[in-house]
Amino acid sequence: MKKFAAVLFLASLFLMCIGRAGAQVVHLANSTNANLLLPVPMGYDSLELARLEFIYEQTDVDTVLSQSRDEYYILSVGDVYSYYEDYAGYRLDSACNVVNWIVTYAQGDSLSALYPSNGQRPEVLHNMRTGLFTVNEYNVFDFYQYKDSTARFAWTLLPDTTTVCGYACRKAEATFRGIRWTAWYAPSIPIPAGPWKLNGLPGLVLWAYDDKGTHDMKLTAARKAHEKTICERVKGYFHMKRERVNALLERSRTAPTTYKSLSGLTVTRTDAHGNPLPEPAKRKFHVPFELE
């Protein structure tokens, strides 16, 4: 997704890293900037218009913390590309696009309250012809991007059937990078894609879950796209290997150490009176999609 202005996104991350859990409502407006315009997101290449959109309810379970998160994602599909992103961010972009990104800080506060986000959701761009994935990850003040050309699932097609959101589906199973997946795909929707990196089946993946009960993504709605442009972020990210990004995310979210930003920014926690607080030696919510 095109981020809802860099300042707004950084502010939401700041709120997250000072310990407020759950969806974030960001307040940026004050007496000085309330009527000033938010910056317009830049550094994107437009790839193609989406034809179809599929909305999934995604449930992730952190078995260490015994916590779960239920959120909505949207898969935008064109002729060549698909793009999986959080639905709150998609709606923020849509609201801003309607007014050509003429949005004040005060209006930004109102939109953020309407579409709150926890700020940790990845974005997955898939070139369905070449099989190349471009993944954007967010870690406090750092934006990571990596390319993945080896996301191949060795699916076993099974005779089981079910119905998901009104579509007849067939079952498939595969182990991918340490996680065993079950996928239900719709042969009537001949798109070799799905949520996250799930791909390579003779039909769109409408429902997928793993054998440990940590990930569950299920279609809730399908529709024609309305002037949605699939874009690729080309500036503002640290470009790394997949293994490096996953290791950084795991260390930041599970190790009881102070976060150190690769961008040189620092995170300082304070109480309501501005007094510094120690960094909590506490695991954050973390549910990896890949163990290898």
The tally of domains stands at: 1
Report, as a whole number of angstroms, the end-to-end distance: 27 Å
| DSSP strand tally | 14
List segments where confidence is low: pLDDT < 50 over at least 5 consecutive residues.
Answer: 3-26
Strand content range: 35-45%
Structural class: alpha+beta
Helix content: 10-25%
Strand order of the largest sheet: 8-9-10-11-12-2-3-4-5-6-7-14
Number of helices: 4
- The topology string of helices and strands comes to HEEEEHHEEEEEEEEEEH
Shape: globular
Radius of gyration over C-alpha positions, nearest whole angstrom: 19 Å
| Major sheet details | 12 strands, mixed
Mean pLDDT across all residues, rounded?
84
Structure description:
16% of the residues lie in helices and 36% in strands. It has 292 residues and is an alpha+beta fold. It has one domain. It has a 12-stranded mixed sheet with strand order 8-9-10-11-12-2-3-4-5-6-7-14. A hairpin with a 4-residue loop joins strand 2 and strand 3. The longest helix has 13 residues. The radius of gyration is 19 Å and the shape is globular. The N terminus is likely disordered.
Features:
single chain; 292 residues; alpha+beta; 12-stranded mixed sheet; two-stranded antiparallel ribbon; 16% helix; disordered N terminus
